[in-house]
Amino acid sequence: MKAIRFQATIPRYLSSKTLGRFFPSVFYGPMSCITYDDVKEPSLPNQEWVKVRVKFCGICGSDLNLIFLHDSPATSPFASFPFTIGHEIVGVIEELGREAKNLSVGERVVIDPILSCEARGFHEPCPACHRGDFSLCERMTIGDVSPGLLIGACRDTGGGWSPRLVAHQSQILKVPQEVSDLNAVMTDPFATALHGVMQDQPRDNETVLIIGAGVIGICVVAAIRSLGSKARVIVLVKHPFQAEMARRYGADEVVLLSSQSDYNQQLADLLGARVLKPIFGSPVIQGGADIVYECVGKDQSINDSLRFAKSKGKVNLLGVASIPHKVDWTPIWLNELDIKGSFACGTEEYQGERLRTYALALNLMRSGKVDLASLVTHRFPLDQYREAIETAAGKGRTGAIKVIFEP
Prior knowledge:
This protein is of the alpha/beta class. The chain has helices at 10-20, 61-67, 127-131, 181-184, 187-199, 215-226, 240-248, 263-271, 299-307, 330-334, 357-366, 385-393, 395-398, and strands at residues 2-6, 34-38, 49-58, 83-84, 88-96, 108-111, 164-168, 172-174, 207-211, 232-237, 253-256, 274-276, 284-286, 289-294, 309-317, 338-341, 347-350, 353-356, 376-380, 402-405.
């Protein structure tokens, strides 16, 4: 079968890094770390695993970071090369291991991609998995499969940018009949947003600022509203089409980040804050939002998340930042901010019940509290992967929100 894989050889990495600054297409061209080749179908690591035929798989912002070599080398020990990319998966079970329970061939499923203790064959969970913090598992590099934080970064499992992959039974969640395939393929980004929001659930009387209106930013808006919060939600967006989508999913106010407008003053006015001018550099904001969700992961967006949080405010970093170079950390100590990171998802407390974030996401979809199918704007076959990557990376030109593959 054909698959899109990442192969981090030193020559390919260095040539892409050097030439990619001038010609971005080098990052997914013939001499890049990305290949589209015939590969052997992955086999079941043991009889607790299943094989899934992929119906749809999304292109995640983290996939683009990988392709354009923005990831920190600190993540490399948590991957095994070459690996098939893709972790936002909806598919159909094709093969069951003899010990896989409560699953049937032909069932429509999504896959929680995190390769934590149970998937790796450890029956005694590590402290993080015992708490339900599966994305923080301490055994991501050992066990029954090769190193990998998740499916889509492990050479043994395959990934969603191919026709088939394997997953442990604990990673499989059945898709309710009420949830369409296009809604289901959004389960992973929605669960990621839910996990971030539920770390700091906004109260009805609080003001929330969401920086960035890509898929995660819109999903944060959707998560806040689907959980029932009436908090005031302000979103800083880059493109007009993102503003429209943010409002559709429940934003109260939207500010467009453009060279023609002073977004600092606009945001400050909405937040009831003051804009102060330093000797040089970015304006200083006095006052701000109760909670800021940073959903971009760039120098400017991180700076803005710190500047626009009020004193004693909370900042949740959902953007996949690697090595920001020009971030001013002064607001953290000057305003005694509470900063949190958020990675993937785990287990949440919801209406007195503890359940996996993926299960909560599907429950909210099933009950009609959220439908994210409209975020899927572009669909491509695997052999058009270069066009798909260009579309996903060029949002301002293409109007893309979520780009998916149909293997």
